[in-house]
Design goal:
InterPro entries: GreA/GreB_C_sf, Tscrpt_elong_fac_GreA/B_C, Tscrpt_elong_fac_GreA/B_fam. GO terms for molecular function: DNA binding; RNA polymerase binding; translation elongation factor activity. Keywords: Elongation factor, Protein biosynthesis. This is GreA/GreB family elongation factor. The chain is α+β, with helices and mostly antiparallel strands and 151 residues long. The protein contains five helices and five strands; from the N terminus they run H-H-H-H-E-E-E-H-E-E. Strand 4 and strand 5 form a beta hairpin. Helix 1 packs antiparallel against helix 3. The longest helix has 21 residues. The protein starts with a helix and ends in an 8-residue tail after the last strand.
């Protein structure tokens, strides 16, 4: 990854942090309908996500580049292997406004997106989906998406 692309990626991650700092309550009002347990779960997930971004952004460029392959962020493409049959599938975790099911772009608020966010290569998950629970292994992560969230 060349220097200008890495700088663009760093800026994109900073913009994610700024978004969650400045637009958090508006985001919640728009996307989180259940203000009980679901709100608490999403709030905790986003707080962990923000802490992870802060840690990543404090790194130098070479460490940041390595980290982009070691943790699932908003904009990461994640290849998973289904343990039952060995089938592999990739998902890109995105903001809710950027979903595209035909291209496996899933919201980080969706059941699968929530489970994939902040995972690392080789993590094992009991992935809950509309078709049931399946054990998967995270095989590979790459940061691929440069879009921005808009309401």
């Amino acid at each position: 990854m060349n220097h200008s692309v890495l700088q663009g990626t760093r800026k994109h991650l900073i913009n994610q942090l700024v978004f969650f700092d400045e637009q958090y309550s508006l985001f919640f009002d728009h996307y989180v309908r259940d203000y009980g347990r679901e709100k608490q779960t999403i709030d905790e997930m986003i707080q962990r996500y923000k802490q992870t971004l802060e840690q990543l952004l404090a790194q130098d460029d070479s460490a940041l580049l390595a980290s982009l392959k070691s943790v699932t962020l908003l904009g990461s493409s994640v290849k998973v292997r289904f343990e039952e049959d060995g089938f592999e599938e990739s998902f890109t975790v995105v903001y809710p406004t950027d979903i595209d099911p035909d291209n496996n772009r899933i919201s980080f608020l969706s059941p699968i997106g929530r489970q994939l966010l902040l995972t690392a290569p080789n993590d094992l998950l009991d992935l809950e989906s509309p078709v049931g629970r399946q054990q998967v292994q995270v095989r590979e992560i790459s940061f691929t998406y440069m879009g921005d969230f808009s309401m």
